[in-house]
# Entry
Amino acid sequence: MNSEQVRAIALELGFGSVGIGPSIPKRPEAHHAWIEAGCHGEMAWMESHRDVAADPDLVLPGAIRAICVLDRYPGSASEDVPPRFGRVARYARGQDYHVHTLKRLQQFAERLSSAFPDGAFRACVDTVPLLERDLASGAGVGRVGKHTLLIEPKRGSWAVLGVLLTTVPFEMDATLNEDPCGTCTRCIEACPTDAIEPWKVDARRCISYLTLEHRSAIPAGLHEGLGDWLAGCDICQEVCPHNQPTTARANTPHAESLKPGRQGFDLLEVLGWTEEDRRVAFQGSALKRVKYDALKRNALILLTNKVCQGDLEVKPTLLEHLQDIEQSANASEVLRETVRVCRLRLE
Ligand code: B12
Ligand code: SF4
Ligand code: SF4
# Structure
């Protein structure tokens, strides 16, 4: 079996693209510096597993190649949003890629294993702290933009990635000329929380991190920037010229599992949810990692944003929710602190 046959299997399994590159990342030092600067915020696993990022041998002894795949999902430059609505980032509108992309990657590994019984394979989709974008660019799948996302030629960045490490020395694909951005700075200017420097995103300021990963209260100065993003954020991708509508993108096939379900949720409904409602709504979705208090925290901030933007009709209901939390003996510190900041903003 040659590299062409490997590629054919990946496409047959439904991946949008595939490339083969070295298993060693090109820029481990950029990752190291990012962690040293504390940009990972509360994602402690990134710090404790940082050696793995630089050395995939720790994930699969003898790893020599990274077979990199991507699953595309639908994206757009803008969209209409109902009033009092909290948006979900597009990658999370379908089924959980940690489950579905990984499952197909494991099938890929099984197919290759039977052709190369002496080779070892390990499928990773966010399951191991590898530098997936770095490896995918090394495998010629795309190029990393200033917003740090991998951009596929002619297709853009609306895709999730997966990596199959292997000990089999497959022939490698050529990498692409590195810089897809030139003088463009659109994502840096559009980011509402100033999280982006060229090729560096400070997670502590990124709405995606704040709404999905950060468990504590969100710093007051970043509340307004969340806008209407309940979980995740797509702004840097919406504005990127590589994602603007073209015929190629209009005809781009998307991974079946990532076809969108819900664009987001009504914020007043979310504030009324029980833990069981949250569980049911997020079942099978990558959103299940957003815990109950974090979700309520996000919804309170977004509704406060709506009021500050002039939606005064919702203010009395929001104030009732704030009061309920203040008067509840069980309310967490995160919610109490969120209520405190929301009240100050509403005065
Ligand atoms: C932690 C993490 C986050 C954090 C931090 C993001 C970040 N930019 O680092 C937070 C929670 C903020 C986040 C947000 C999002 N994430 Co995320 N995230 C990850 C995760 C688990 C690790 C990334 C990491 O190691 N970051 C640390 C930094 C240092 O790594 P890096 O940015 O990859 O760094 C490299 C480049 O910057 C490059 N570099 C540095 N300098 C230079 C200079 C030049 C010239 C060049 C070319 C390159 C370059 O080299 C660095 C080291 O290799 C990966 C999965 C994985 N294991 O890789 C998913 C991953 C990156 N996320 C993904 C997605 C989809 C998102 C969101 C779009 C989700 C959303 N809509 O809300 C946003 C996008 C925000 C953004 N602009 O990055 C996808 C990206 C797909 C793609 N097309 O690139 C990944 C790969 C998950 C997956 N399996 O698909 N994410
Ligand atoms: S995802 Fe949103 S907050 Fe994060 S870097 Fe992109 S535009 Fe900024
Ligand atoms: S918006 Fe411009 S600077 Fe940002 S990633 Fe896209 S091309 Fe690069």
